[in-house]
């Protein structure tokens, strides 16, 4: 049974689970249901113009100093595989509609380079600034970790805060401590409008 985390909680993933070698990280979200009031003009005049909110999942592989040391270690729909081959992105989902994970990232824990100490998972809204969109237009966001071999869901974290005005979310972090891997539920909004701006914070 999965452990449901709340913001700020941490869990040891590999201690007592030596067979865990690979995990799937699933990220999901839903667009807030549109209220059918105000008519045609209201839709044109309101922020977002009624366009779909396109969220993108990314992961940054950081060194022991919390720095992104190679552009190949920023994994997103435009760069689906890390430099060491340990992290693979499933690809882009443009709408977030439907049940379950919207985008997934597979991680081979045994292949992660010794120089990588933290993996930071991010969701941002594509072209948020241009489309005047923010995470107040998104609901039911979550991040979950699944054992790739047994398909057992290990961790589930629902992001329940109000993220209105934020264009990016730092959802969680996988980090190395000695020989073990741990996961931290972060759930922090950020004003950076794109993944490039977020990556600059770690350069």
UniProtKB/TrEMBL annotation:
Database matches in Pfam families: TerD
Domain named TerD: residues: 1-202
Protein name in the entry: Stress adaptation protein
Lineage: Bacteria, Bacillati, Bacillota, Bacilli, Bacillales
